[in-house]
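Notes from the 1:1 (GR / supervisor)

We went over the backlog. Supervisor wanted to see one worked example end to end before approving the batch request, so GR pasted a single chain during the call. The sequence is below; no edits were made to it. Supervisor asked that the structure be written out right there so they could see what the output format looks like.
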Amino acid sequence: MRLAVVAGMRGSGKTTALREAVGLIPVPVGFIANNLESEAMMRSVCRDTDHFPFKSPCARMRQFRYRTDLMREKPPALLICEPPGTCEDEAAPLVNPIYAVDRDRVSFAPLVTFFEPGKVLGGLTSRTVEGLRLRNMADESDVAAVSFADLLADDDREAIARALREVNPDVRVLFVSPVTGEGIRELASILESEGSYTRPLFN
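Structure output shown during the call:
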């Protein structure tokens, strides 16, 4: 089973974009959501859906193991998972223990994190708690998916990509808009592909 962990702050547009992308994926897809609302949004395009209890602490490995064990008899080819609890903005607290314990039965897609454009432009370099969160998000990501791309001017796109690559020179910046369809097919392809787990995830 391939696992794609997709992180991002609440309101970053990740579930809406994922719903469009999963509709283009030809293999059976499972989805474990951070909350009931996200699970409900994905039911129409996923074979299996589940959710972490909202009160679940960050990186609760046994929650992940319990839910994937329920799918063991007929596992999906691709399992997409949002990080649980209050750690929805970062994948590392969930992915690291899965890599340590379950990499014999799970392969990893590239790590995708969704960013709101305004937060990148206004907060990535700020010396605040949110600025640190944003830098950690950018640093761990293989792919930075920038949402609401239909609202962005070319100059803003260049500034966002530059800011993200100053934190993580290797990150792939993907502009995404379910409104216009921009980036959705590329996102689907990324979710299906195999990642190398080369990012040093110390977050």
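Supervisor's comment: Residues 154-167 form the longest helix (14 residues).
Batch request approved.
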